[in-house]
Amino acid sequence: MTSVSSEARPFRASDLGTLALLAWLAPNEVGGGSTPCLLACSLGDGPEGPQAASAAAERLLKDMGLPAGGAPVDGTTRPSLKVSMLVVAGQIVLQMPNVSSQVTPPAEWLRAVQERGWAYFMFTTRICPTTGPRRPVEGAELAAFASAPETTGAAAHVYLPARSLRT
Questions:
Q1: On the CB side of 96, how many CA atoms lie within 13 Å of its CA?
Q2: Which residues contact 99 (CB under 8 A, 6 or more apart)?
Q3: 34-42/118-124 β-pairing
Q4: pLDDT (tens digit per residue) in 106-125
Q5: Separation between Cα atoms, residue 23 and residue 120, nearest integer Å
Q6: Cβ atoms 45, 126 nearer than 8 A
Q7: Of 31 and 78, more confident
Q8: In the chain, pLDDT over 70 holds for what percent of residues?
Q9: Interatomic CA distance for residues 18 and 10, integer angstroms
Q10: Cβ of 24: how many Cβ atoms within 10 Å?
């Protein structure tokens, strides 16, 4: 007879599957301009499937001290934060314990993050819908996914400082 353990197993990066990074600009409600936003989410294509990927994302967030659904964390005042964003050569490199991912954001996003010095980062435990193998949704579908209460409520929210290489 097989039984399922209720004990949480340790985080394994492979359980996340493909980690998608989605960058966009959100219009500011006050003062005009735009806020650079970055969303991290699993495509649910890990070896154990979407439910395990969601659980792995939740474990990773908990291990980093970033509760899903909690108030935004001001990472600009927390140098010990276990997530960082490097912006270099037109790329975003997101680094977390045992996980690293990168994406090429739009030029406008890069200008906005350079101007502000930070991006509004969300890491959701909700699985991103895909348009095919390893390809997250785009356009209107992406906007609907990123702004859905099911996505934002299942996410850790961080004002994440943009770091760069110093020459």
A1: 24
A2: 13, 16, 19, 60
A3: parallel
A4: 999 999 999 999 999 999 99
A5: 10
A6: no
A7: 78
A8: 91
A9: 18
A10: 17
At 94, which amino acid appears?
A: L
pTM for the full predicted model: 0.87
Residue 50 in tokens: 């979407």
Q: What is the 3-state secondary structure (H, E, C) of the chain?
A: CCCCCCCCCCCCHHHHCCEEEEEEEEECCCCCCEEEEEEEEECCCCCCCHHHHHHHHHHHHHHCCCCCCCCCEEHHHCCCCCCEEEEECCEEEEEECCEEEEECCCHHHHHHHHHHCEEEEEEECCCCCEEECCEECCHHHHHHHHHCHHHHCCEEEEEEEEECCCC
Residue 111 to residue 86: CA distance in whole angstroms:
14
CB 37 within 8 A of CB 119: yes
Largest separation between any pair of C-alpha atoms in the chain: 63
